[in-house]
Amino acid sequence: MKLGYARISTKEQKLDLQLDALKKAGCKKIFSDVISGATKDRPNLDKMLEQLRAGVTVVVYKLDRLGRSLRHLVNLINFFMEKGVHFQSLSDNINTNSPQGKLINKRRKPPHFRARI
Questions:
Q1: Taking the model in full, what pTM does it have?
Q2: What is the helix (H) or strand (E) element at residue 86, kind and residue range?
Q3: Which phi and psi angles does 18 have, rounded to 5°?
Q4: Largest CA distance in the chain
Q5: Are 58 and 5 in contact (CB under 8 A)?
Q6: Which residue of 16, 37, 56, 102 has the fewest C-beta atoms within 10 A of its own C-beta?
């Protein structure tokens, strides 16, 4: 199952482009926030994170829509990996469920995870 996440910074901006792309990518449910990227609290991102289960794919239109900073983005990707959740960024051509993405994930896993692969 694919879950989408979209974010815009101001009410003057439109979510349409992101929502259309996420629907086209096959997202069954899409969470969105209208909030600055620097803001720590993102209620709908938190709701999505609570629903994540192994095998789910989180899809975003662009990386900068998900993470507040590079550190936050890396922490989220590591969180996904630990939960067995895949990640896809449509504009950045990143997909951890592709053959290349699976290879990178296997190489990045901590040793106790690699032993099970």
A1: 0.83
A2: strand 86-89
A3: -65, -45
A4: 50
A5: yes
A6: 16
CB 30 within 8 A of CB 2: no
CATH architecture of 2-114: 3-Layer(aba) Sandwich (3.40)
Sheet of 2-8: strands edge to edge? Answer: 29-34, 2-8, 57-60, 86-89, 94-95
Q: Which of 9, 32, 36, 89 is catalytic?
A: 9
Nearest in space to 77 (alpha carbons), one of 37, 43, 98, 104: 104
What type of residue is 22? L
Cα 31 to the center of its chain, rounded Å: 11
Q: Where are the domains of the chain?
A: 2-114
Active site residue 69: no
What's the pLDDT score for residue 113? 43
Q: Residues in the chain with pLDDT < 70?
A: 37, 99-117
Torsion sign, CA atoms 105, 17, 30, 12: positive
